[in-house]
Amino acid sequence: MARGYRQPGLAATSVPRPEGYGTTHGTTNEQRGRCTVRSFRFAVQVRGLGDHDGLVATAQQLEVLGYDELYSYDHVGAVDPFIPLMVAAEATTRLRVGPLVINNEFHHPALLARTAATVDRLTDGRLVLGLGTGFAQSEHDAIGMLLRDPGPRVTRFEESVMALRSLLDTGAVQFDGEHHQLHVDDLGIRPVQERVPFLIGGHGRRVIGVAARYADIFQFTGLTDLQGGQLSAGGFGIEAIRQRSRWLTDAAGDRAGDIERSALVQAIDIGADSSDRLDATAERFDVSRQVIDETPFALVGSVEQVVDKLERLRADVGISHYVIRDAEAFAPVAAILAGR
User: Fold this and answer.
1) Which CATH number applies to 41-337: 3.20.20.450, 3.40.50.920, 3.30.110.10, 3.20.20.30?
2) What is the maximum alpha-carbon separation in the chain?
3) Using 50, 70 and 90 to split pLDDT, how confident is the model at 34?
4) pTM score > 0.85 for this model?
5) Count of CB atoms within 10 A of residue 63's CB?
6) % the chain with pLDDT above 90
7) In angstroms, rounded to a whole number, what is the distance separating the alpha carbons of residues 316 and 241?
8) Long-range contacts at 108-111 (CB < 8 A, ≥ 24 apart)
9) Cβ distance 154 to 205 under 8 Å?
10) Where are the domains of the chain?
């Protein structure tokens, strides 16, 4: 029997979820402008995925610490984004796994759907499929692959997401678009989950529109593209996040309550005295101290200060899902907030 991802705000399906997963919290949809406030969930993007024994130990530690998900990454010059997920899932009992995020420009949607369905089946329905447009010019140059300009890149991204949704939901797709012509009657393998959840990350309005139509989780990144595929902290400011939160809510319409809101944290420094560290983090990202103090992408301060900040951000822009990279440093915060 196929299992289903439990959508926040929707009735549960048959798959058992970690305690507190996907539950709503506090204010109503009307009070939050159709953005359902959910209980907190936390995940870790893990580095060093090429060491089997180290990965097993890390995955098991994350499960003990109460994290919900382990994420990989998709870059030229790094490990495959999917194979380590199999090892992590095999070593644990409930930890969900996924790539954060797939560089869509590297992948054909039918072949990506085949891989995703296989991983979901062999992990007993624990895949979260993270999807992004791609950005790194140097990686594309290294393998002689075109990185499209932003407009065509987003158009191709939406076509890919549409195709992936159809292939993973039904096993088939019939589609003739600008970038993809797909006529697949049978993918040949079906995922365990009735709906493999899509995490879509991005900053631009068109990508947010794609997320509004197809995402189960939307991830605010705070990162903006500079020329040549370099990234800056141009979207760290709280007003930019509020604006994108409104874009998502407006574009999603009746789906707004079904989309979990997430942030990929770029810096964590948790300790008793935060004053000097706030200044250092602001200098690192070339933003003001006030931006660092308000943004979800940098968590600097005492445990109590970070807990208070995350609760304020949830009330303000609805973010309840955080992906971090330092599991041990963040563990005291996760222990207080997870499921709350």
Assistant:
1) 3.20.20.30
2) 60
3) low
4) yes
5) 18
6) 81
7) 10
8) 109/159, 109/160, 109/163, 109/164, 109/167, 109/180, 109/182, 110/163, 110/167, 110/173, 110/182, 110/184, 110/187
9) no
10) 41-337
77-119 tens-digit pLDDT: 999 999 999 999 999 999 999 999 999 999 999 999 999 999 9
Query: Residue 175 is which amino acid?
Result: F
What's the confidence (pLDDT) of residue 282?
A: 93
CB atoms within 10 A of CB 75: 13
Q: How far apart are CA 168 and CA 182, in angstroms?
A: 14
User: For 169-203, how does the pLDDT look when each residue is reduced to its tens digit (9 = 90+)?
Assistant: 999 999 999 999 999 999 999 999 999 999 999 99
